[in-house]
Amino acid sequence: MRSFFNKLQWKIILLFFLSVALTLGTFLVMEPLLLAFYHRFYTYLRPIVDALFRLNRIAGFRFPVWESIVGIVLFIFFVLLLSWGTTRKLTNIIKGVKRMEEGNMDERIRVRSNDEIGMLADQINTMAERLQFSLQEERMATQAKNELITNVSHDLRTPLTSIIGYLRLIEEDKYKDEVELRYYVNIAYEKSKRMNRLVTDLFDYTRMGFGQIPLNRSSIDLVQLIGQLTAEFTLQLKHHQMEIELFPPQEKLLIYGDGDKIMQAFENLITNAMRYGKEGKKIQVHVAKENKEAVVRVVNFGPPIPSMELPYVFDRFYRVEKSRSLDTGGAGLGLAIVKSIIELHEGSIIATSSPQQTEFIARLPLQ
């Protein structure tokens, strides 16, 4: 709690009375000196003193004019002297605000005071910090928007170019027989499905980013859900000459969440492990209980993710493989969607990677 006399209005009152006291004290000290000075230079000062006395009688003043003038001058002097620190602080604030107005948002007002002037300086500094942060966020948002447009344009243009090319061959009857025709149609169809997945992923991620996606929560046995999901992937992985191993706990792990969204999140994780872990020939899924959380680890044994890339794997459109070819990976939205879904369920997810294995660790609160 601040001292009662730290407030600016009480400082002003104190300054007034202190100036009066110093003026009177100065009079008492200077009076003998002034009398000695007057007697020493009596010849020169007598006309001026007589004129002041006549003015005093004409005006009808009951106190000496010269003392009043000297008193006023001294009072003003002491007010200016005692208020110099306060006015200097106000001047610093004005200069600091002026520099901020000119665009120098790194400027900070250095005023140390326990009164309202110090509070004003602190509030201006806080406002400048928040405004600077807002401007940085705005620049980052603009950059993210430009990157989003660039990436979406690239990822849509590639399959779209192929579709147009094969449809042109069909339109111009540039195929040998029905087998080749069906081959062209099949390629155009697969490219169309990739475009549809990209648009769907982008739409889902955008809705999650703005918190507009509803969650139909219910009690879910995470062990059963993961078991069902791994069973569904068995045939697909076999086609890629891979296998999946599940390591479940003996007990049920109940969470309160949206089953479809949770299924989508772990489906994306397994798909990612299948896409980038082909060299390891297998995927492991570990489900366990740790304290009050259900922990799911999706492990692949493919090439490691460079340590400098790990902090960005959950960013939208980020891919370790930089060519953005759909033959070597998706559009870079899968892991971003996973992170959004897990966080919507009050959980967390991290990625670790070593030369032996790459692991995605998702944690969800138990019911």
How would you portray this structure in words?
The structure is a single chain. The protein is an alpha+beta fold and about 375 residues long. About 60% of the residues lie in helices and about 15% in strands. The strands form two sheets. The protein has a five-stranded mixed beta sheet. It has a two-stranded antiparallel sheet with strand order 1-3. A hairpin with a 2-residue loop joins strand 4 (about 280-290) and strand 5 (about 295-300). Helix 6 (about 180-210) packs parallel to helix 9. The radius of gyration is 40 Å and the shape is elongated. It starts with 7 loop residues before the first helix and ends with a strand.
Short description:
The chain has 9 helices and 7 strands; from the N terminus they run H-H-H-H-H-H-E-H-E-E-H-E-E-H-E-E. The chain is α+β, with helices and mostly antiparallel strands and 367 residues long.
| Proportion of beta-strand residues | 5-15%
Mean pLDDT: 80
**What characteristic shape results from the CA principal axes?**
elongated
Number of strands: 7
Given the helix and strand composition, which structural class is it? alpha+beta
Cα separation of the termini: 44 Å
